[in-house]
Amino acid sequence: MDIQSLLSEAKARFAHNSAKDYLREKYKNKFLVADQNGLWSADPNTIATLQSFDTEKVILLDNHNRPVEVDRLALLNKLKTVYQETMSAYHSEFKETETKR
Question: How many Å apart are CA 29 and CA 82, to the nearest integer?
Fold first, then answer.
């Protein structure tokens, strides 16, 4: 391999990794949900925590570590919807960057 092809390959790898980092940052904030006087992350941990309870009302720490009493099912449904929609969009864009590699 010559130096030009190595340099070209390194630039392509850097551009690809930069595109993946950009997507991660772009979608990170789209998982945040302001609801029921708290700020929540629509992530598997929060969703699983809400699913583990069987009561109507639950007190959880939001993203700012404040205890908030929430309607468990309403918050669970909202977080699941946001998670699925955001992950679907993220996955689509991620696949596009993988094909451009």
Answer: 11
- 3-state secondary structure string, the chain? CCHHHHHHHHHHHHHHHHHHHHHHHHHHHHHEEEECCEEEECCHHHHHHHHHCCCCEEEEECCCCCEEEEEHHHHHHHHHHHHHHHHHHHHHHHHHHHHCC
Output the CA torsion sign for 50, 55, 56, 61: negative
Model confidence pLDDT, tens digit, residues 28-78: 999 999 999 999 999 999 999 999 999 999 999 999 999 999 999 999 999
Domain ranges for the chain, please list them. Answer: 23-99
